[in-house]
Design a protein that fits this description.
4 strands; 51% helix; single chain; four-stranded antiparallel sheet; alpha+beta; 2 domains; 13% strand; 171 residues
Length: 171
């Protein structure tokens, strides 16, 4: 079933962005639209904020749950294998670098706060808490190193793959 066909069966349909709509739920007395409809990958996604079940909603529209899925032809009775997602290693490496930077900045703030402490005026509970933060800072340093290492490995793999592809084009 197409999205247009599905939406034509509902009342008070309003667009809420690209591939998203709201409408009155056909299961309960709906004064304002509480049924959310969205386009998924080959399917129609529905959710009633009044907690109506999806099976009840499609039944009220004289449909079945199978009608929410597109009728794309499948060769030889099998669904095509999904295409693998291409990983952008450079972007992923950048995200790991940001995570490492975030941890290192947090460590610097904890160390600066620790240097400003007068431990003789702290109670045992406060001292334990300060030591816990110092231990967390040490863990953050180790995690930052790990994130930086992962980022370096991702960049190396990206550059190696790019050089390999360049050599293949030349040959």
């Amino acid at each position: 079933m197409t999205m247009t066909d599905f939406l034509s069966r509902l009342d008070s349909v309003r667009a809420r962005g690209t591939g998203r709509w709201v409408a009155r739920c056909p299961v309960h007395q709906d004064a304002s639209p509480s049924l959310s409809i969205a386009e998924g990958a080959g399917r129609i996604l529905i959710h009633c904020f009044a907690s109506c079940e999806s099976t009840d909603i499609v039944a009220a529209l004289s449909l079945t749950m199978a009608d929410l899925f597109s009728d794309a032809p499948t060769p030889h009775g099998h669904r095509p294998a999904p295409k693998p997602v291409k990983i952008d290693r450079i972007t992923l490496a950048f995200r790991f670098e940001l995570a490492a930077l975030d941890r290192r900045l947090r460590v610097e703030r904890i160390i600066a706060a620790g240097k400003a402490l007068n431990i003789s005026s702290l109670s045992d509970t406060e001292l334990d808490r300060a030591l816990m933060y110092a231990a967390q800072a040490q863990t953050d340093v180790e995690r930052a190193k790990l994130c930086e290492s992962v980022a370096d490995n991702l960049r190396l793999k990206a550059f190696t793959a790019r050089d390999y592809a360049r050599k293949e084009r030349i040959a």
